[in-house]
UniProtKB/TrEMBL annotation:
Keyword Nucleotide-binding: no
Domain Thioredoxin: 1-177
Keywords: Antioxidant, Oxidoreductase, Peroxidase, Redox-active center
Family: Belongs to the peroxiredoxin family. Prx5 subfamily.
Protein function: Thiol-specific peroxidase that catalyzes the reduction of hydrogen peroxide and organic hydroperoxides to water and alcohols, respectively. Plays a role in cell protection against oxidative stress by detoxifying peroxides.
Name of the protein in question: Glutathione-dependent peroxiredoxin
Source taxon at top rank: Bacteria
Its EC number(s): 1.11.1.27
Active site: C56
Length: 177
C-alpha cells in the first residue's frame, strides 16, 4: 500500500439536477475535478465499499451526516463520501439515506480509489473491485491525516470498521484545533 501526500488528479463523472431539462429525470452529466473538490478547502473524505451495503448504510454515512455541524464548527468546508459506484446508484442511495449534508461522490471507474492505493478485489462477495474503507482530512489537495482500516487485502473475509468512522475523525480534528 503506497502512501501518497496529495489527492490524485482525476475527473469524476457526476449527475446534477438541471430544471431546464424538464421531465421526470431532470439531470445532466457534469465532470468534477479533484481541483474543484479540494483546492483551497479543508475537506473530510470517507470511502466505503458500496452504497446500500449494511455497515455503510447503518453506521458509516449516517454518523457523518449526523455530526455534520460539528465538523463545520471545526473548520471543515465539506464532507465527501466516495464509493466505487456509479452516479445513479450514489444518487438513489443518498435519497434513501436522507443525506443532505454529505456529498456523495461516485468513483464509478475506481480511478481515484486506485490512484489512492485503496482499490481492493472483493470478488469473494461478488462486488468486483471496490474501495477499502478509510477516511482522511484533505487540506488544499494535501492529505493531512488518514485513517485506514486494518487488514487491507484482496478478498478480505471481514469488513473492518474501527478507525474510519465519524467519531474517530471528529476526535482527531478536536485534537489539532
Amino acid at each position: 500500500m503506497a502512501v501518497i501526500e496529495t489527492v490524485p488528479n482525476v475527473v469524476f463523472k457526476t449527475r446534477v439536477r438541471d430544471e431546464s431539462i424538464g421531465g421526470p429525470n431532470p439531470f445532466r452529466w457534469q465532470d468534477r475535478t479533484t481541483e474543484e473538490l479540494f483546492a483551497g478547502k479543508r475537506v473530510v473524505v470517507f470511502s466505503l465499499p458500496g452504497a446500500f451495503t449494511p455497515t455503510c448504510s447503518t453506521s458509516h454515512l449516517p454518523r457523518y451526516e449526523a455530526l455534520y455541524n460539528e465538523f463545520k464548527a471545526l473548520g471543515v468546508d465539506e464532507i465527501i463520501c466516495i464509493s466505487v459506484n456509479d452516479a445513479f446508484v450514489m444518487f438513489q442511495w443518498g435519497k434513501q439515506q436522507g443525506a443532505n449534508n454529505v456529498f456523495l461522490l461516485p468513483d464509478g471507474n475506481g480511478e481515484f480509489t486506485r490512484k489512492m492505493g485503496m482499490l481492493v478485489d472483493k470478488a469473494n462477495l461478488g462486488f468486483g473491485m471496490r474501495s477499502w474503507r478509510y477516511s482522511m482530512v484533505v487540506n488544499n489537495c494535501k492529505i493531512e491525516k488518514m485513517f485506514i482500516e486494518p487488514g487491507f487485502d484482496d478478498n478480505c473475509p471481514t469488513d473492518p470498521f474501527e478507525v474510519s468512522d465519524a467519531d474517530t475523525m471528529l476526535n482527531y480534528l478536536k485534537s489539532v484545533k
